[in-house]
């Protein structure tokens, strides 16, 4: 059954809910500080979104643009709300925004672990291609 959710821009008051959602979804080990959260939002206001169900945050995604590319990270949906179209709607709203805001974004870029079958299926179904050429610089 489709959930009755609303997608909107993330606001500073979503800090605790987003932090908890990301930690529960295994997307952040330690969580994010309030300062870092505010910095992310102030830099990328248009591309940080949450999905809410009766004002409860049940999904989140962060996007940031480097003018030509929209980078997407930290897509997560509350376990109890998965497979209801929320992840797809968050992603589609990001893509819509990247087209509609009069920007010159040419690509939407993200990385996903191959073993994350659910996320891979979602991105494939939206038309993302597997470029398989990601270099990761760790341990800074
Ligand atoms: C990946 C994730 C965000 C998907 O969110 P979601 O709201 O459940 O996804 P949707 O309901 O919009 O799914 C859309 C489509 O993606 C595919 N899909 C999503 N989850 C899937 C799964 N577990 N297995 C197979 N296909 C899946 C399906 O094609 C689905 O369409 P369908 O339900 O009509 O078959 C969610 O599972 C999650 O939060 N996972 C943990 C965090 C994570 O891995 N994030 C991605 C990091 S790259």
Provide the low-confidence segments as ranges.
Answer: none
What value does the Rg take, in angstroms? 15 Å
Shape, per Cα inertia axes: globular
Number of domains: 1
Q: On the 0-100 scale, what is the average pLDDT?
A: 92
Listing every helix as H and every strand as E from the N terminus to the C terminus, the arrangement reads EHHEEEHEH
The CATH class label is Alpha Beta
Largest sheet geometry = 5 strands, mixed
CATH architecture designation: 3-Layer(aba) Sandwich
Total beta strand runs: 5
How much helix, percentage-wise, in residues? 25-40%
Order of strands side by side in the largest beta sheet? 1-2-3-4-5
Percent strand equals 15-25%
The assigned structural class equals alpha+beta
Give me the number of helical elements: 4
**Cα-to-Cα separation, first versus last residue:** 44 Å
> What is the fold-level CATH name, i.e. the topology?
Aminopeptidase
